[in-house]
Structures are given as C-alpha cells and as structure tokens.
Amino acid sequence: MATNTAIVDDRDSLIHYSPAWGQSGTPEEFDATTSVGTAASAASFTFVGTSITVYATVPGDTLPRNLAFLVDNSISGTFNSPHPVNNTHHFAVWSSPTLSNATHTLVITQETSAGVFLDYFLYNTTSTSATYFIDDRDPRITYTPAWSQNNSEAYFQQTSQQSTSAGDAFSFSFEGTSISVHAPVTDTASNISFAMDGGPPLFHVPPQTGLNLVIYDSGDLAPGNHTLVVAAENDHSVWVDYFLVTPSSSSSTGPSPASSSTPKAKSSTPIGEIVGPVLGVFSVVALIAGAALILRRRRRQRQRRRELLGFDPFETLTRSPSTVAMQDVPARTPFSNSASTSSTELLTKSSRVAPSSSLSPAAYSDVPPPNYSENSGTS
C-alpha cells in the first residue's frame, strides 16, 4: 500500500489541549487558524503513521519561545525560536525520526510564557482516516511545459507554481472520492479550466485575490482512480500551491485511530428505512379508501329505500317525540282541568305532524293536569 501525507489542522478534534490554548489565525495559515499556549500547557495528538512534522507560525521578535516534543514517551525533541525578523508561516518546528507503521501519540509542551502559533501536522501514513495533502512539487504532478516556481513563507512548504501563458497545463492522478485545488490569486482576469477524467472542462475566473484560496472543488467522486487536468486559458497569471484529497475508504490498510474528524463519503440509506415508511403510507391510504367505499354503498342503499318507500325507515326510527311541532300543542292552563279543544280539532292538528313521525298525538283533554298542591319542593 502506498504511503501518503495526511494533514490535520490545529482545530481538529483529535488534538487535545490542556489547558485550552488561545486561538488566532491569518489568511496565510491552514484554514486561517492557529493555536497558542501558555507556559507548561500541552497538546497531544494520536495518529497512525511512520513520521510526523509539526508546522507553526513563528513570530518575528526576540522573545524566548520554546517547545518540547515527546512521542510514545520515548522519542523527544525541542524547538527554540530562531527569532526571525518578520512573522514566518508554515515553519517546520519539529520532525520525528522514522517510526514503525503503528499508532503513536505525540505530546507538545510549551516551556516558555511566550509560544509559537501551532498551525497543522503532516504525517506519513497508509491509513485513509484523514485528508491527504499534496504539495505543488509532488512528483506525481506533471507540468507541461514546466511552470515557474515561486518561493515565499506565505506558501505551503514555502513554494508555489505559476503560469503566465495560455495553454500551460498540468495533470494529477490520484485515488479518492474528492479533490480541491488551493492557490494564491493575484489576477482576477485569469481564466482556468478544470477537466476530470476526460470530461468537459469547467472554467473558473477568480472573483477575488488573496492567499490560500480554493480555486476548484470536485465535489463527490466515485471511489477509485481519477485524473485532473488544469490549463491556463489566457496569458494572465495562474498559480497552484497544494491539493487536498479525500481518500477512498475501501483502500484503508493497517491500524487506525478510534475516531477521526475527516469527512467521509456518505453511505447509502438502508432499503428497510425507505420501504417501511412507504408501505405504511400505502396501508393508511388503503384503509381510508375502503372506508370511503363502504360509506358510499350505504348512501346508495338509503337512497334506494327513499325511492321505493317515499321515506327512510331508519331515519323514522331515530326520530324522537321532540320532533312534534310545538305550535300544534294546545295551550294549557296549569290549574285547569277543562278540555277546550274538540277531538275534531285534535285530529286536524295531528295531521300537521311530519309524516315520518312514529308517534300518534294524544288527546290532550284526557291528560290530567299536574297536581301542584302536593309537595313540590317549595315552601
């Protein structure tokens, strides 16, 4: 399995600070972030690899700024600031010797009150648990014709490549699921084309100038081998500093840490999680449709009864005596025992009751008046 260089930012959750370190950052730095500690503070990082290098921004002053390094409680090293005149970015403050291809733990301790600004780690590994870093001088990149190399402390590994001629190009083959191209931009009139795996080119005109800018992002790719071809489309300056590649997880070998903050390709949704809710929705729809069909059949049956009988017998049976028209009830005097309404009038009035009523009107003259002389609950 090929060895690649993985990159881890100072803000990665796999780096543990004790106590918490201060945070800073400028556009020149990776992800525009750095971390700085106080005297006796420490940072630890566990990784799988065969070597590791620590990069930081070293302030341009004469203050003592010292760090101590310890790998697996056995391999040690130190850094003492060289007191540069100006702030120096992407400074390799310490590199480990060659290690066994296994899990290791690096502990960094700040020995002075003033510290350096920790930026990122680069470590050689066969694991695919972290993003790979590819520098502009990597031998796997083919420039045609040769591009101009520029050196500056603002660039990763202190270098970048530049083209000022239309038709200049480079190609890079890699294995992974995504790639991004990072570069300084000095000219917003430049036009750059990017073609993946022989597909149609995508053109990019930078909207702004600056350092450490993303000029291309492939998005998700199928796991496996890919080739990116980049070309200058005019005579304006085009730069490239480094690439970041998300490796194919299927090619992972060797031990790996318990967790990683590196984004991974999204896994497909299990079929059961899709089929279950769909079947549930269809079941509910079927129940509702069945209930609606039954109600429709009942309505049709009632309609047929009405057409045959002239009324609905079920509706008649459910009517109550309260459906009798109250205006047909003769006026009564509570203490009167006389029947002032003739039977003929009663028969005439009873005919006004709705035909669907199942009750026959009573002869109100035969109903005895209520006896209010008995105990009625009033004193």
TrEMBL record:
Annotated TM spans:
274-295
Chain intervals with Low complexity compositional bias: 333-365
State the name under which the record lists this protein: Uncharacterized protein
What organism, scientifically named, is this protein from?
Answer: Mycena alexandri
**Alphabetized UniProt keyword annotations:** Membrane, Transmembrane, Transmembrane helix
Query: What domain of life does the UniProt record list for this protein's source?
Result: Eukaryota
The keyword Membrane is annotated on this UniProt entry? yes
- Ranges for the region named Disordered are 248-269, 321-379
